[in-house]
């Protein structure tokens, strides 16, 4: 399995869970905050992944990558912070108890 396929599956799961939380209060606000958090996390990922790859702390097998990069960081690395930014708040809202 390639990193692109794994990233696509994770993004689809995050999108499905976020969509499932659409009927909960303040959905638009939550999604706007998640988008802002995703942007910050992607910037941090770009900076620190590039530093770690440049320091040769880890490598990716080329045959599992799409070939697209932001600096030295493969594009697939950016799916994880995006998933976290949308998935965590959505799961939180879906699992919290509603006020009586």
TrEMBL record:
Keywords: Carotenoid biosynthesis, Isomerase, Membrane, Signal, Transmembrane, Transmembrane helix. Its main location: membrane. Pathway: Carotenoid biosynthesis. Pfam families: Lycopene_cyc (PF18916). Residues 1-19 form the signal peptide. InterPro entries: Lycopene_cyclase_dom (IPR017825). Residues 5-90 form the Lycopene cyclase domain. The keyword Signal applies. It is found in: Membrane. It is a multi-pass membrane protein. It comes from the Bacteria. The keyword Electron transport does not apply. The chain crosses the membrane at residues 35-58, 78-95. This is Lycopene cyclase domain-containing protein.
């Amino acid at each position: 399995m390639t990193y692109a396929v794994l990233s696509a599956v994770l993004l689809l799961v995050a999108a499905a869970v976020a969509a499932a939380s659409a009927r909960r209060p303040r959905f638009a606000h939550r999604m706007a905050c998640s988008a802002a958090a995703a942007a910050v996390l992607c910037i941090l990922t770009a900076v620190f992944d590039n530093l770690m790859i440049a320091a040769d702390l880890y490598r990716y097998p080329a045959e599992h990558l799409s070939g697209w990069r932001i600096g030295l960081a493969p594009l697939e690395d950016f799916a994880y912070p995006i998933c976290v930014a949308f998935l965590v708040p959505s799961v939180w809202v879906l699992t919290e108890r509603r006020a009586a």
